[in-house]
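Researcher: Here's a chain I'd like modeled. Treat it as a single chain, no partners, no ligands.
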Amino acid sequence: MSSLPFPVRVAAGLVVTAVEEARDLPRTVAGLPITAVSRVLQLSMRAQQVVTELAIKGDSALDGVRPVEEAPSWARFDDDLPEALPGTWPRPDLDDTSLEHTDLAPTPTTPRVNGHAPKLGVVAQTPDALPGYESMSIAQLRGKLRSLSVDEVAELLAFEESHANRPPFVTMLSNRIATLNAQ
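Model: Modeled as a single isolated chain. Structure tokens:
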């Protein structure tokens, strides 16, 4: 324990701290610009957060005052298209006059499966191996494939090739058949 008075001990501590800081000054000066930029970026990000929080509070306060637009004028949905468009799909390789009196002629009510039109003259039906297959997305099919046998996957592949013939589906089904045959 020191017998020196408290203010003298504090003064000695200040002198030692000043000497240590003087020794570290070159390193501190080198890092000063980085520290300053970091602090400025922190402050600007915090200011942006505060402004965003205020905007959110303002939006929630004004939501009750202003009426909500049913459908924005800039939004276009498939349901808004004229009725004549969905069934019309030109086939440059076929003459429309040659198909007039057959069941191969495209009609406005021709069903589309996942955005693809089935091949002409093929009756759309659900394969027995996987009911609802024709309306499944690729992700849904991927989830169901593990529970199917080789014969069932082969049936789906034949169905796909004779109907929509979508390349990602054909590839996935072919790969699954190869994997099952390899096991």
